[in-house]
Amino acid sequence: MIRKHIKLTDPDPLYFQVEKNIRRKIKDGHLKPGDQLGSYNDLSKEYSVSVITVRRAISDLMIQGMVFTRAGKGIYIAEPGREELDLSKHKTIGLVLQNLDHPYFSLVVQGVEERAYELGYNVLLSSSSDRIEKEESQINHFRRLGVDGLIIASLSLEYKATDYIQKIHEENFPYIMVSYIHDPDYWYVGSNQELGGYLGAQHLVKLGYKSIGYLHAEKGNILSEIRKNGYYRALTEYDIPYDSKLIFYLDRDHPTSVSDRFRLGYEFGRTWKSIEKKPDALFVYTDLVALGLEKSLMEQGVSIPDDVGLVGFDDIVMSAYANVPLTTVHQPAHKIGRMAVDIIQKRIDVSDVGNRTILNPTLTIRESCGASKRAPMSGAVSSEGVVV
Q1: 124: region left, alpha or beta (phi > 0 left; psi from -120 to 50 alpha)
Q2: pTM confidence score
């Protein structure tokens, strides 16, 4: 792929390179006030980067007063000398992500922006670039600018409210978390994680697997532990003995990036042949790890699903395009994004809404679990999810 105006050797993030290039074109007079930049999709193709990367760059340029948007018409160059965007004159939601490249949160963003447009809100996008201190500064920056509400995908892997989230909660500022938070007092919209773990393990049980392992995140990861609770419940309900030797933990603490998780799955796969008691199937706590594992096993000649069945969790887009398409627990990320905006709207209007909005996950069945080769037990898992 040729990345126009983008240098992969440049240490600056891709969004900042796009931002710099547009700013340079404005300064040099190649882009004049009133000129249309095109749509986000147009710019994504021009720069050969993701739409979410373009949105991050345009958000910064909007804040600086260099560009503005017109609903349904695109992005335009602003008059020179325009001051930093005064958000008090606009309906605006700030969206703080941990990483622009995370495939799950990319789907959440699509839902956020779709619903925000329908309700007449602008969306400003910011990335904490996997740095917890930058996450706090971005939240504070958006508040100083005067956003009406905040949607936060936190980098914190402790799954509890950080000091600054506690602060905005106590001030009753409209916000919603779209990354998992364990504390029930804080505002959150997401999936039923325990049910997701149950669905994944139950599916393997119903396909006739008797030895089912769980590939856990690092020890102490609460989200992975909750998914494991669902796995344990499924085994118990179907009278399959729980075996702690079939619970495998990843070595590295707190993986944050996409490449981190894929690499950890790949590295675990390299240990596969040395595992004395191998399970017939593995439920993996997240798709990125499962995809890394699949690649590693296949390189060693391990057949999926004949030698080991795999089920992941998240249903990210790339799971459907793996060499052996991955069966996975589907989190309704797009719907979560839309609901996050609806909740923000209600909080702005001081309407009553519960602290936690939980959606049921569903199962996406592909080839990695062996469903096409195995006769399922009676009472197959429903693929329909409902709001609880």
Answers
A1: beta
A2: 0.82
